[in-house]
């Protein structure tokens, strides 16, 4: 939504927005653009009456602004529908979809195109990403060229359009990273998730290209009836784009990519983790399929920074490293902790988790969550965000996760909120520790509260 607001402003429209509570990095981005954020929702926010209201998918009937829109018949639409009508028609949409890795892979692909544009200006991309890409300092860009790179979200579009957002985008080329059960609030099971992705695959024209991960049976099923060329990427011997000799040393991830059995390229980047090598390989494969040179791809990956809130080092205090990561699913948590183990093999690794996403707040993946968190040395859980909105029979019980972790030999503790976590955690930290804070929201300001407490304790000589 914030990225679309920025794109519309570039088109010359006057934009205002409303939210229950805005938080960084998107709130910072909007304020830097001079786009006011009105908090909280209120009918008065629609005065003067706008020409069009764009309604996000988190908004439902009963919202005061929605009710005024319907009562007064103010024109309204969804993010995805407006994006297609205003920006995608007449362009070449390149879509990155999947349960995990969308934001990072989309950012990588956009940076590859931006790098290639130094030799061919026609390749400079427009893009829309669900996070702030650090190479651009933005989550969006608008150019008059054909390529439009965007993140394809499987979540529903709006209260009046319950289909996935990505069905509006009609991609010329598609990356499909993973297909797992997620968004437990709108999908009944994995089969329902797969149905959504199969419909996306069915929108790619015969002349198009799908680059699909080969290490996931659900991805295989989803692309099995594609009408276009499908190229698989991954670690297996049968992958068309095969990753080999992956290693992390001296602050660099390095690996080889074999194309159809022959060495094609060697890449290096600063991001750690097997999952990021997969993301980068997918972006490289799609870019190569669109005619971008290996030289440009390698140059882009070697200079790629990251995305805000993805393994982002927020602070270092008295030898304690504080990292933020966007956590929405047990698999993403597992891969984040695996990546941190490779970067900080000698450190005591703390995982501080706020169960906030609609999947993590439910117990359906509780066993997977325990298995993922066991990759940390110590775990701290917060209470469930807005637990009253989750039906009791479906609700995750954090105390059960903590008990399971302790029973399996991973020390874990539960505290109700960010303030209680900071008070309990700060005295236990010591120089050399790495703390990763996992949440897909603001987590009640813990990203600033914890380092502030640590600095205060360091001045008092209370830190080891």
Radius of gyration: 22 Å
Helicity level: 25-40%
Termini separation:
44 Å
> Quick one: CATH class of the largest domain?
Alpha Beta
Q: Number of folding domains?
A: 3
Task: Describe, in plain words, how this protein is organized in 3D.
The chain has 464 residues and is α/β, with parallel strands linked by helices. The protein folds into 3 domains: 2-74, Rossmann fold (3-Layer(aba) Sandwich), CATH 3.40.50.720; 81-303, UDP-N-acetylmuramoyl-L-alanine:D-glutamate ligase (3-Layer(aba) Sandwich), CATH 3.40.1190.10; 312-459, Mur ligase, C-terminal domain (Protein-Tyrosine Phosphatase, Chain A), CATH 3.90.190. 32% of the residues lie in helices and 24% in strands. The protein has a 10-stranded mixed sheet, sandwiched between helices. The longest helix has 16 residues, at 274-289. The radius of gyration is 22 Å and the shape is globular. The model has no long low-confidence stretch (mean pLDDT 94).
Layout of SSEs?
Elements (H helix, E strand, L loop, with lengths): L1 H9 L6 E2 L7 H7 L4 E2 L14 E3 L8 H9 L3 E3 H10 L3 E6 L4 H15 L9 E8 L4 E4 L5 E6 L3 E3 L2 E4 L8 E4 L13 H12 L7 E5 L3 H7 L5 E6 L6 E9 L2 E8 L2 E8 L4 H16 L4 H10 L8 E6 L2 E6 L4 H14 L5 E5 L12 H8 L4 E5 L15 H10 L4 E4 L2 H8 L8 E5 L7 H14 L5
Parallel strand pairs: 1-2, 3-4, 5-8, 5-11, 6-8, 11-12, 12-13, 13-14, 18-22, 19-20, 19-22, 20-21
Antiparallel strand pairs: 6-7, 9-10, 14-15, 15-16, 17-18
Helix pairs in contact: 1-2, 5-8, 5-9, 6-7, 8-9, 10-11, 11-12, 13-14
């Amino acid at each position: 939504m914030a990225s679309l607001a920025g794109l519309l402003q570039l088109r010359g429209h006057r934009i205002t927005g409303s939210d229950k509570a805005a938080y960084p990095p998107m709130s910072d981005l909007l304020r830097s653009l001079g786009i006011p954020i009105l908090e909280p929702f209120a009918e008065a926010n629609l005065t003067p009456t706008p020409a069009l209201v764009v309604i996000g998918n988190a908004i439902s009937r009963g919202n005061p602004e929605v009710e005024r829109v319907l009562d007064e018949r103010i024109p309204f639409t969804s993010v995805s529908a407006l994006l297609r009508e205003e920006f995608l028609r007449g362009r070449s949409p390149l879509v990155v979809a999947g349960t995990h890795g969308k934001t990072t892979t989309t950012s990588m692909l956009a940076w590859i195109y931006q790098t290639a544009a130094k030799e061919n200006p026609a390749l400079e991309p427009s893009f829309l990403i669900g996070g702030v890409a650090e190479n651009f300092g933005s989550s969006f860009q608008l150019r008059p060229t054909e390529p439009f790179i965007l993140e394809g979200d499987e979540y529903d579009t709006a209260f009046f359009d319950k289909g996935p957002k990505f069905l509006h985008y009609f991609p010329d080329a598609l990356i499909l990273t993973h297909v797992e059960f997620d968004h437990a609030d709108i999908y009944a099971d994995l089969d329902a998730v797969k149905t959504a992705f199969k419909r996306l695959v069915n929108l790619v024209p015969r002349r198009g290209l799908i680059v699909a991960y080969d290490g996931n049976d659900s991805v295989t099923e989803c692309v099995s009836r594609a009408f276009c060329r499908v190229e698989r990427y991954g670690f297996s011997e049968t992958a068309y784009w095969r990753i080999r000799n992956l290693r992390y040393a001296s602050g660099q991830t390095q690996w080889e990519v074999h194309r159809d059995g022959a060495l094609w390229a060697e890449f290096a980047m600063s991001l750690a983790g097997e999952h990021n090598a997969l993301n980068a390989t997918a972006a490289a494969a799609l870019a190569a399929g669109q005619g971008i040179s290996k030289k440009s791809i390698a140059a882009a990956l070697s200079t790629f920074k990251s995305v805000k809130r993805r393994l982002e080092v927020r602070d270092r205090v008295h030898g304690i490293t504080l990292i933020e990561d966007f956590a929405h699913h047990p698999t993403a948590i597992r891969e984040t902790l695996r990546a941190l183990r490779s970067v900080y093999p000698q450190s005591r690794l703390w995982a501080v988790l706020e169960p906030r996403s609609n999947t993590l707040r439910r117990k359906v993946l509780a066993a997977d969550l325990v298995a993922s968190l066991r990759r940390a040395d110590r775990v701290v859980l917060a209470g469930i965000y807005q637990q009253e909105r989750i039906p009791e029979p479906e609700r995750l019980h954090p105390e059960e996760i903590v008990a399971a972790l302790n029973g399996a030999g991973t020390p874990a503790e539960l505290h109700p909120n960010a303030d209680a976590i900071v008070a309990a955690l700060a005295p236990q930290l010591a120089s050399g520790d790495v703390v990763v804070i996992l949440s897909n929201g603001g987590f009640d300001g813990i990203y600033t509260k914890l380092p502030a407490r640590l600095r205060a304790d360091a001045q008092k000589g209370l830190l080891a």
